[in-house]
Design a protein that fits this description.
This protein is an all-alpha fold. It has helices at about 10-20, 30-35, 35-45, 50-60, 70-85, 85-90, 110-115, 145-160. It has a domain at about 10-85. The chain is about 45% helix and about 0% strand.
């Protein structure tokens, strides 16, 4: 990979002035990096390196509250983390997701659920309507294996485990 040239102090100060206008003092870093991601990526893909962008952000005063200057690695990591989807947004169901109907043993499928679309309201349950509770199956001891089943199990064990 070719090295990008380190910009002069004047170029760094000029870009720092432009980025300072986009920054509000006391603003959180990661949301700001998320909002300005397109601008920063365009600069990085151009003539600016991560190291030079770190110098620009430090010169502009865009730092964490500690005031610690940016390093190229820290900026690259924080930028990457800022671009990752937020936790709550990744798991939200889409508006076109189908409705899920849960049936308990002995209950009948509501007639409205067969024709219902995701945009329709869910079927209403009348106050007198009740669901039957789920009943577990009674215990049944395991059945004896036939000779064919036993030979198949042994053959699979030899093939997979080698013994």
């Amino acid at each position: 990979m070719s090295q990008k040239r380190m910009p002069s102090d004047q170029e760094i100060a000029s870009l720092a002035d432009r980025l300072r206008d986009l920054w509000q003092p006391g603003e959180e870093i990661r949301p700001w990096l998320r909002e300005q991601g397109g601008v920063l990526l365009e600069l990085i893909h151009g003539k600016w390196s991560w190291a030079s962008m770190a110098r620009v952000l430090t010169a502009a005063g865009i730092t964490y509250r500690t005031g610690r200057p940016w390093s190229a690695n820290l900026l690259r990591k924080d930028f990457s983390r800022a671009q990752a989807p937020l936790k709550g947004y990744a798991r939200r169901p889409s508006s076109t997701a189908p409705d899920i109907v849960v049936l308990l043993p002995g209950s009948a499928l509501p007639s409205t659920a067969m024709t219902q679309h995701a945009t329709d309201a869910p079927p209403s349950i009348t106050p007198g309507q009740r669901f039957k509770p789920a009943v577990p199956k009674p215990y049944a001891p395991p059945s004896e294996l036939t000779a064919d089943e036993r030979t198949e199990i042994d053959a699979n064990r030899k093939r997979i485990l080698g013994y």
